[in-house]
Design a protein that fits this description.
mainly alpha; two-stranded antiparallel ribbon; binds phenylalanine; 445 residues
């Protein structure tokens, strides 16, 4: 049986952008930007995304496409001796853990999405949105079923394969996501008093920018582009030889930036227009947003659209996190895909249960001083992801042959020698150095 592949370049770009654009990008990024100096943070973030982020994205693309293998074999093929394939294993473990709690939030979104049909999410009986959120997340049954439902949706798509599953779903979901954001953004920006929200999010605040801001922006840049866990190695391994990697990478980066800005412009103006404060942390989309929509004409419709869009964003990232584990297990034997996808997907669901219960039965149980959900998040985001990113960058820069690197990077593209030289400089020195700095900061800072 033949190894699966993408049906078109646009399909690949949309799937990769779908992986990149997730909770981290549409929700966390605008929120952090608001706190960390507004427009200036965004500016720094975009610069880092286009330099350090893009070079690492290209490194993952080059490795994946040149080997046409998933997370483990790609490393083995380049360096048969030694334990380099551990980089792939780190990526698989990190993705497993990341999806275990990502799918919990996916479950919350699923519940809110279903509940949005009844309209009592935007206008709860006693008017208290926070109480409603606590009530929902502390009910293990409702939240458990929603969590399972989210995981099953992810499995159903991934088991259909690259072209018929992930690509097909992304080709519908990503444009829909864009259109919904556009509608919400226009609605939000045309409210009375919207400008204050635009200022909060985009006005440069020089006093809020410190050394920390750079580190925040860099960590966010890697997370936003799904780097460090071999997701992009996996996706590009299904790509044909003649697609230009640099232009695909630019497309993914530009789409991510565009959506992040649209997200900020859809969320903050609406919050300020109704005199609310965007300071609820992770709860914002479940407490402040429904409250805002509750005051709008046709608020239920807008809220429904908002949850649909969150669902699409979260799902397309979840596909990539499951696929990176399935690919090395089936190694091109597509007849094994269905079974493997179900097994791995259900194991991830099981692993997510304690994260889900962190808000009810396990809310008093601490691991390293954190509830289970936060402990897993910490391990993945602050340790496994940066470690993986560092190792991938060094691996591609020093273990692959220069000639192969250049050939793979430039094939099918209009970019020339100069671009290659800059990229090589980036992945050899600048990118690893930046990651080491962030790493130390995240752990000891
Ligand atoms: N990029 C995703 C987001 O912004 C998260 C992610 C990280 C997905 C790593 C896959 C791999 O939410």
């Amino acid at each position: 049986m033949q190894r699966d592949s993408w049906g078109s370049r646009i399909g690949f770009v949309l799937a990769a952008a779908g992986s990149a654009i997730g909770l981290g990008t549409v929700w966390r990024l605008p929120y952090v930007a608001g706190e960390q100096g507004g427009g200036l943070f965004f500016f720094i973030f975009i610069i880092l995304l286009m330099t350090v982020g893009t070079s690492l994205l290209l490194a993952e693309f080059v490795l994946g496409r040149s080997t046409k293998e998933g997370a483990i074999e790609a490393y083995r093929k380049i360096a048969p001796k030694g334990q380099w394939h551990l980089i792939g294993i780190i990526g698989m473990v990190a993705s497993f853990l990341l999806l275990s709690f990502y799918s919990v939030v996916g479950g919350w979104i699923t519940t809110y999405f279903v509940r949005s049909f009844s309209g009592n999410v935007t206008n709860p009986p006693d008017g208290d949105h926070f109480a409603l959120f606590t009530q929902i997340t502390s009910n293990p049954w409702e939240i458990g079923i929603a969590h399972l439902a989210f995981m099953v949706m992810t499995i159903l798509v991934v088991q259909m394969g690259i072209k018929k599953g992930i690509e097909k779903a992304s080709v519908y979901m990503m444009p829909a996501l864009f259109v919904i954001f556009l509608i919400l953004m226009i609605r939000s920006l045309t409210l009375d008093g919207a400008s204050e929200g635009v200022l909060y999010f985009l006005q440069p605040d020089f006093s809020a920018v410190t050394g920390e801001t750079f580190l925040f922006a860099l960590g966010q840049a890697f997370f936003s582009l799904s780097l460090g866990v071999s997701v992009m190695v996996t996706y590009s391994s299904y790509l044909d030889r003649n697609t230009s990697l640099p232009s695909s990478a630019w497309s993914v980066v530009l789409l991510s930036v565009l959506i992040a800005i649209m997200a900020g412009l859809a969320i903050f103006p609406a919050i300020y227009a109704f005199d609310m404060q965007p300071d609820q942390g992770p709860m914002l989309i479940f407490t402040v947003i429904p409250a805002v929509f509750g005051q709008l004409a046709f608020g239920e419709v807008f809220f429904f659209l908002f949850m649909l869009l969150m669902l699409f964003a979260t799902l397309t990232s979840a596909f990539s996190l499951l696929e990176i584990i399935v690919t090395p297990l089936i190694r091109g034997r597509e007849h094994l895909r269905k079974r493997m996808t179900w097994i791995v997907g259900l194991l991830i669901f099981a692993m997510g249960i304690p994260s889900n219960l962190s808000y009810s039965l396990l809310s008093e149980t601490y691991f390293f001083g954190m509830i289970f959900f936060d402990a897993v998040d910490y391990l993945v985001s602050n340790i496994l992801l940066p470690l993986g990113a560092l190792l991938i960058s060094l691996f591609v820069a020093y273990k692959m042959k220069k000639r192969d690197l250049k050939d793979e990077l430039l094939r099918g593209s209009n970019f020339r020698q100069g671009f290659y030289s800059i990229w090589l400089l980036m992945i050899r020195f600048i990118t690893p150095l930046c990651i080491i700095v962030v790493f130390f900061y995240l752990i000891f800072g």
